[in-house]
Amino acid sequence: DQQVKQNSPSLSVQEGRISILNCDYTNSMFDYFLWYKKYPAEGPTFLISISSIKDKNEDGRFTVFLNKSAKHLSLHIVPSQPGDSAVYFCAASARGNTGKLIFGQGTTLQVKP
Amino acid sequence: GAVVSQHPSWVICKSGTSVKIECRSLDFQATTMFWYRQFPKQSLMLMATSNEGSKATYEQGVEKDKFLINHASLTLSTLTVTSAHPEDSSFYICSARPGTGELFFGEGSRLTVL
User: For the segment B33-85, what is each residue's pLDDT rounded down to a tens digit?
Assistant: First the structure.
C-alpha cells in the first residue's frame, strides 16, 4: 500500500523554466510534508517542508503547495537550473510521529541548459 | 547544519558474512535514529527506528534477526546485516534529528553482496 505516491518517474525542463513536481498521499493522518533532493549514491538532503496548517511555503526558488482536500502537494522550482537535476522525493509523517517518514517513489528531474 | 555520518560508504562482502554499518550524529545527540533502505529506482523504505538504550522498533516485513540494530550511545547507531545474501544488496541510509527540528540523513552505505 503506497501511502505517498509520485506518479511521474521523470521530468525534463529547460533551464530558466518552472519545474513542477507532484505528490499525492492517501493517509489523512499525515500532517507534515517534506521534499528531499537526492543525488546518486548519496543520502537525501532536505529542501523544504510544509505543515498541514498551511497551504504554501516558500524558500527562495522553491515553493511547496499543499491541497489537503485533494491530498496533493507539489514542489515548484523557478527558475530551474541545471544543478537542480536530481531525484526529488516527497515524504510525509503523521501527527506525533515526525521522525518516521513515508517516502514517495521519487521523480528524476533533468534541467537542460 | 547538523551532520549525520555513515561508515562505510561502500562495502562488498561474500554471501553468508555479516556486515556492520555505523551511523553517527556528529554534533548533536539523538535518542532516536532511523534506518532506511533503498533499492535501485525505488523509494526509501523505513526499516526500523533505533532507540538509545532500548530495543529497536522494526517495520512490518523487516526481519529483526536479520537486521540487528544497536543504539548504544546518544551519537551512534549500528545496523548489522547478518548472514548477508545477494538480495540484501541495497543502499542503506540512516537519519537523525537534533531535538524536534529537521531530520538529517547520512550519506548512505551501499552494500553489495556477492
Answer: 999 998 877 788 999 999 888 899 999 999 999 999 999 899 999 999 999 99
Q: Which one-letter DSSP state was computed for residue A3?
A: S
Cα separations in angstroms, A10 against A83, A101, B16, B39, B50: 16, 22, 37, 17, 33
Q: For residue B87, give the DSSP letter.
A: G
Q: Tell whether B34 is within 8 A of chain A (Cβ).
A: yes
Q: Which amino acid, residue B49? A: T
Backbone angles phi, psi at A83, to 5 degrees: -70, -10
Angle at CA of residue B40, ends A61 and B63, nearest 5°: 115
**What mean pLDDT comes out for the span A59-64?**
97
Give residues 36 to 95 of B whose Cβ lies within 8 Å of A: 36, 41-46, 49, 91, 93, 95
Listed in sequence order, the residues at least 6 apart from A39 whose beta carbon sits closer than 8 Å to its beta carbon are A86, A87
Cβ of A99 under 8 Å from any chain B Cβ?
A: yes
* Mean pLDDT of chain A, nearest integer: 92
What are the percentages of helix, strand and coil residues in chain B, rounded to 5? 5, 50, 45
- Whether A98 shows a pLDDT value over 60: the answer reads no
Beta strands in chain A, from DSSP E residues, in sequence order: 4-5, 10-14, 19-25, 30-38, 45-51, 56-59, 62-67, 72-77, 86-94, 102-103, 107-112
